[in-house]
Design brief:
This protein is α/β, with parallel strands linked by helices and 352 residues long. The chain is built from twelve helices and 14 strands. Strands 6-7-8-3-9-10 form a six-stranded mixed sheet, sandwiched between helices. It has a four-stranded antiparallel sheet with strand order 2-1-4-5. A hairpin with a 2-residue loop joins strand 4 and strand 5. Bound molecules: adenosine-5'-triphosphate (ATP). This is ABC transporter family protein.
Length: 352
């Protein structure tokens, strides 16, 4: 449903995206995960047809986002990081307004608006003024405006930022309920968001894709921290400890800060899919180590994320200047240009 190949975006001389490629199958939720400034928003804006790429291609349902941008906009719903909502409009009026802006034919507006209200749990609040809604409900309105033309693809930029923990759960559940009928790309810098909501994850760092897979396969492939933690007598001979490193399946060994004066804690890192626990115990016995505790440690998605994204490079002064110089050239998304002057009940094709 979504095919992105070798996407590059350069703002002035600042490369924001470099050879970004990924694909999303119909009905999937892809988590687009990366730290601040990684290039998530840039990618989503290119996908939505609001920003041209410098090179590379992106296709939505077979349509090229640049060459066939009208066809793409009909098939994609976009929730920007700061969704433009008109606080003095009611939820329903706003959705009729957006349906009209998105050229939903007159006869389809009522069923589409009603479907979006119901899918987003807004039916009871449809007559409420947007300014009277909580932030969580306003975010639902943002998602409903992305859905109102019933697009097969929905792109959500940081959809849970600024919500309280209960609202976060509600919005995540809403997003999960939309999968299947819709293909979803969700950008986030929050790890639990990905493991709780998404089928697959693409990790992006400094404009480059550094990993793609299911949360589970990523953890298996990149087994940072996967191994054993041992607590041994502090009198052990460090020379003898190297015996543990020679065991098949053991990758490396590291001392951890000691918890007690007479104990020494050691982290053993293992190769993927290896289980050298019995050999480690046997080596401890044959070396005469007093083993007080041995614990299996497994990589978390957080370990994977940190391993892949911590090699940050501090921007040079030159980089900073380029960023400032190029900002005004970037067009604003169409959604952000919705004209509140159109907030006219006569113009809005809505029921009594
Ligand atoms: N309009 C612009 N002009 C110049 N540089 C820009 C512009 N927009 C983004 N950038 C730069 O491109 C890079 C990627 O930015 P982008 O907003 O896509 O990242 P992000 O992953 O969405 O970050 P965040 O989570 O902070 O929104 C950053 O270095 C950013 O400073």
């Amino acid at each position: 449903m979504i095919e992105v190949e070798n996407l590059c975006k350069i703002y002035g001389s600042t490369p924001a995206l470099q050879d970004v490629s990924f694909s999303v199958e119909a009905g999937e939720i892809l988590g687009f995960l990366g730290p601040n400034g990684a290039g998530k928003t840039t990618t989503l804006r290119i996908l939505s047809g609001y920003l041209p790429a410098t090179s590379g291609t992106a296709k939505i349902a077979g349509y090229d986002v640049h060459e066939q941008s009208i066809a793409v906009r009909q098939r994609i719903g976009y929730l920007p990081e700061n969704p433009p909502l008109y606080p003095e409009m009611s939820v329903e009026s706003f959705l009729y307004f957006v349906a009209r802006i998105k050229r939903v034919v007159a006869g389809d507006r009522r069923p589409n608006v009603e479907a979006a209200l119901k899918k987003c749990g807004l039916w009871e609040r449809r007559k409420s003024l947007i300014r009277k809604l909580s932030k969580g409900y306003r975010q639902r309105v943002g998602i409903a405006q992305a859905l109102v033309h019933d697009p097969p693809v929905i792109v959500l930029d940081e959809p849970t930022v600024g919500l309280d923990p209960r609202q976060i759960i509600e919005v995540r559940n809403l997003i999960k309920s939309l999968a299947g009928d819709h293909t979803i790309v969700l950008s986030t810098h929050i790890l639990p968001e990905v493991s709780m909501t998404c089928n697959r994850v693409t990790i992006i760092n400094r404009g480059q894709v550094v990993a793609t897979g299911t949360p589970e396969t990523l953890m298996e492939e990149l087994t940072a921290g996967s191994g054993y933690e041992l607590e041994l007598d502090s009198t052990i001979d460090p020379e003898k400890l190297t015996r543990l490193e020679q065991i098949s399946g053991v990758r490396s060994l590291q001392y951890l800060p000691e918890s007690l004066e007479d104990r020494r804690q050691i982290q053993i890192f293992c190769e993927p899919n290896s289980e050298p626990g019995p050999e480690i115990v046997a080596a401890c016995v044959s070396c005469g180590f007093n083993l007080y505790e041995m614990r299996r440690t497994r990589a978390s998605l957080e370990d994977v994320f940190l391993e892949l994204t911590t090699q940050q490079v501090t921007p040079t002064a030159e980089d900073m200047i380029e960023v400032e110089e190029t900002q005004p050239e970037v067009p604003e998304p169409l959604d952000e240009k919705l004209d509140p002057v159109d907030n006219n009940q006569q113009d809005i094709d809505e029921p009594d």
